[in-house]
Automatic annotation (TrEMBL):
Gene3D superfamilies: Pyruvate-ferredoxin oxidoreductase, PFOR, domain III (3.40.920.10). It comes from Glycomyces albidus. Residues 10-181 form the Pyruvate/ketoisovalerate oxidoreductase catalytic domain. It holds the Pfam family POR. This is 2-oxoacid:acceptor oxidoreductase. Keywords: Oxidoreductase. NCBIfam families: PorC_KorC.
Amino acid sequence: MFAIRFHGRGGQGVVTAAEMLSQAAFIEGKFAQAVPTFGSERTGAPVVAYCRIADRAMRGREPVARPDALIIQDATLRFLPDVFAGMPAGGFLLVNSALPLAELGIGDRLAGLARARVASVNATQIAREHLGRPLPNTALLGAFAALADVLALESITAAIRRRFEGDLGEANVRAAAAAYELVAAQRRRHERAPLRGFRTVRAQAARR
């Protein structure tokens, strides 16, 4: 089983993202479930959603305590204590931010993570360019396809088209494809990097 946990804010399409990811898994013949959790349903309040993907049926619908992948749709949530809870050293991390991960002030959270398994992408700006609105969810799904190799971009875009019809669907598909290309390029660079992972902020300071 592969588990993904989304952290975002109300109005960013966090729950919709988890649902579309599960639909993409169904398209590939896999089993999946999407589970939303609301602290508050008002716009701007923190929202968490989960998606599980497996090769066999799943019964449990409990919250994901140890995600294989963590998708942070709003970078302002990165300092909340529970956002990185349970994140394993071999996991994937995707952050919606205009800043590179090294400049986000979360060096201790990145320690031990492989460079090729982490990425930041300005999904909000991509959404503005393609949708005319700052809704980053579909762009982040495309970025996730490039980062984790769990689901194909074609399956994700098919799920997007099922959710959004006509021109709106195609605009969201373009946003996903644009983010996919950016993260795929990051991943290729990181795979060529000599370092295996990130150092903590404390270790980096010691080297200076």
